[in-house]
């Protein structure tokens, strides 16, 4: 009698290409919620692969080609420069699979595969969460809980693909919003890319002047910690994000420098009334973040 | 027989002038550690007084004149502009009491009472801790634990006064370091005043452009929260700090803007190698803060 081989259905298999902080956290949450029966990992960093297997984030590590042929749902969670490079050939190889990305920039990736014969199998997304940590060792299942996942150009994707992505994000505890890539990229420039840039610049300012003195270590307190938290974020992830979104980042950076100059002018004149006005205006950020 | 009135000894009474976040947190910790038997509060804000009494941060609220005559140890914990105004007349009135301040700027306060007949009863200090919260309701006994307290110009204070201040801070769980006012003010410009300024400017940049859209609320994530945490800090406290330390703040702000311009130039040229270099340099901040 022949042995009845009963593999996991393709629709129950997810492949995550790039098992870093984001891919790893998605895997952890998918595991906890039991959204898929089998999780495949792909990563060109052998340490990531080893950690992801050891943490049981993934069931197996395979090549990208094997992942595409085995899985019904493919998540591209690499740095955004690799996404631009990988996505066209990945879409060349898909048939009926759903493919989504998790990139922090959306215009270039959408433009890159616009008109591709399998464009409709792709859903452009951005689960809006990050950390100054990186790699699968920092992956946390709870990371995405109550956060927003953006879907861009949903109209260019097959309805079943959009639906599958929405179901996935909702099962992960996220709220899905639709937005066009242009709006997404300018908004994330303000609320994510600019904050990273100014934190990096603060770190460099302080390191440049104070590294030979012990005064930072002794005086650095909670305020400095929070202001430099994002400065710990890795260049592998953030260089391509800033570069891909550079027109928007340059635009908001110029606006930011204008705001700094307003403070500079008031300080130079010793105008306390105007300094207070600028600070009280800034205090309204309490209404936005808690 | 005459009733033997047995008041608390003067040396066991501390008066805290300014029962806000800092004064209130000191009071809370002094209470927990039993450093003084009786805590007097002085504040010109009736809400602060009511909250401080209700939270039992202080045993009584009195006038500044009564506080000076009753207490053996006087802490000036008002905003730094009020300190400049209050300290000379406060020192006029002291006899053998110990007086210390808690201000985030040290040069102006030290200069202000240099040569005062009771200069030696004063110890210039800065317990290095803060929060974006303010007022006594935000006071926490654990705030100062394991933080640094700076003492400036210890040589201009009577040894018994310096010793009493050191004992107080050590009982509060702090590590005392000595520093001259010039070094203190430039170092705090880097690690505290500049971070506040850039957080205010970030908040204003985002509020200016995005307040008519709901996109911040939906997309703002952990990174934005930490980058704008300091922007919630009150103008009553921060306007006078920035103004008193304005030469140093302007100096470090210019250096900071130069660091931003380095990023701007690399971005404009799309020079990923140089962006990576700047980010990797900033990542060394990990060695400073954890």
The CATH topology annotation of the largest domain in chain A reads as Rossmann fold
Overall CATH architecture of the largest domain in chain A: 3-Layer(aba) Sandwich
Give the uncertain stretches of chain A in residue-range form: none
Which strand order does the major sheet of chain A show?
Answer: 3-2-1-4-5-6-7-8
Order of helices and strands of chain A: EHEHEHEHEHEEHEHHHHHH
Query: Given this structure, which CATH class of the largest domain in chain A is correct?
Result: Alpha Beta
Percentage of residues in helical conformation of chain A:
40-55%
Mean pLDDT of chain A: 92
The largest interface is: A-B, 92 and 92 residues
State the distance separating the first and last CA atoms of chain A. 65 Å
Query: What is the fourth-level CATH superfamily of the largest domain in chain A?
Result: NAD(P)-binding Rossmann-like Domain
Portion in beta strands of chain A? 5-15%
- As an assembly, this protein is homodimer
Whole-number total of structural domains of chain A: 2
**Count of individual beta strands of chain A:** 8
Rg of chain A, rounded, reads 22 Å
Question: Could you characterize what this model shows?
Answer:
Chain A is of the alpha/beta class and 290 residues long. Chain A folds into two domains: 10-179, 3-Layer(aba) Sandwich (Rossmann fold); 185-287, 6-phosphogluconate dehydrogenase C-terminal fold (Orthogonal Bundle), CATH 1.10.3660.10. Helix content of chain A is 51%, strand content 12%. Chain A is built from twelve helices and eight strands. Chain A has helices spanning 21-33, 46-54, 64-70, 80-93, 107-112, 159-171, 181-210, 215-219, 222-227, 235-244, 246-269, 272-282, and strands at residues 13-17, 38-42, 60-61, 73-76, 98-101, 122-127, 148-152, 175-179. Chain A has an eight-stranded mixed sheet with strand order 3-2-1-4-5-6-7-8, sandwiched between helices. In chain A, helix 4 (80-93) links the parallel strand 4 and strand 5. Chain A starts with 12 loop residues before the first strand and ends in an 8-residue tail after the last helix. Chains A and B meet through strand 8, helix 7, helix 8, helix 9 and helix 10 of A and strand 8, helix 7, helix 8, helix 9 and helix 10 of B.
């Amino acid at each position: 009698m022949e042995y009845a081989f009963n593999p996991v259905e393709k629709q129950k298999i997810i492949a995550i290409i790039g098992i870093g902080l984001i891919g790893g956290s998605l895997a952890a949450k998918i595991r906890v919620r039991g959204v898929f029966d089998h999780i495949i990992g792909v990563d060109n960093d052998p340490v990531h692969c080893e950690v992801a297997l050891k943490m049981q984030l993934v069931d197996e590590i395979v090549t990208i080609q094997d992942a595409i042929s085995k899985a019904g749902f493919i998540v591209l969670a690499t740095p955004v420069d690799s996404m631009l490079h990988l996505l066209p050939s990945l879409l060349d190889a898909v048939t009926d699979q759903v493919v989504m990305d998790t990139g922090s920039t959306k215009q270039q990736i959408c433009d890159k595969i616009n008109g591709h014969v399998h464009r409709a199998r792709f859903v452009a997304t951005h689960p809006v969460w990050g950390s100054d940590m990186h790699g699968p060792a920092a992956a946390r299942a709870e990371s995405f809980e109550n956060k927003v996942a953006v879907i861009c150009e949903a109209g260019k994707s097959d309805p079943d693909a959009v639906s599958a992505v929405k179901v996935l994000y909702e099962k992960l505890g996220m709220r899905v919003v639709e937005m066009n890539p242009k709006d997404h990229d300018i908004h994330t420039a303000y609320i994510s890319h600019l904050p990273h840039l100014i934190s990096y610049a603060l770190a460099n300012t302080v390191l440049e002047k104070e590294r030979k003195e012990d005064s930072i270590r002794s005086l650095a307190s909670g305020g400095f910690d929070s202001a430099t938290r994002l400065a710990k974020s890795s260049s592998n992830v953030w260089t391509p994000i800033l570069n891909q979104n550079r027109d928007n980042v340059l635009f908001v950076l110029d606006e930011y420098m204008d705001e700094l100059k307003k403070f500079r002018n008031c300080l130079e004149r010793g105008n306390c009334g105007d300094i207070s006005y600028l600070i009280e205006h800034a205090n309204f950020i309490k209404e936005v973040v808690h």
